[in-house]
Design a protein that fits this description.
Mean pLDDT: 86
Helix content: 40-55%
Number of helices: 3
Order of helices and strands: HHH
Length: 73
């Protein structure tokens, strides 16, 4: 059983990357290499930045109340 933490684990990032289209996976891996960051940090930053443009990681991400243009049920 995997426990939830404040950051994306390397194992979870690998599973996620393996499910992505090759060009997206390679883009994330290239970005991580260029920044000299672990790929899990780059994936986390990409997701957190999408949900909350002011956040750098899951710790600072506050997606509650963000309107993505969806209409309620």
């Amino acid at each position: 059983m995997q426990t939830t933490t404040e950051h994306l684990s390397p194992e979870a990032a690998k599973t996620f990357l393996d499910a992505l289209p090759e060009k997206i996976r390679l883009g994330l891996l290239t970005c991580a290499s260029q920044l000299n960051y672990p790929v899990e940090a780059v994936v986390e930053m990409a997701i957190a930045g999408y949900l909350d443009e002011d956040s750098v990681s899951f710790v600072g991400c506050n997606p509650i109340g963000i309107d993505f243009g969806r209409k309620a049920g």
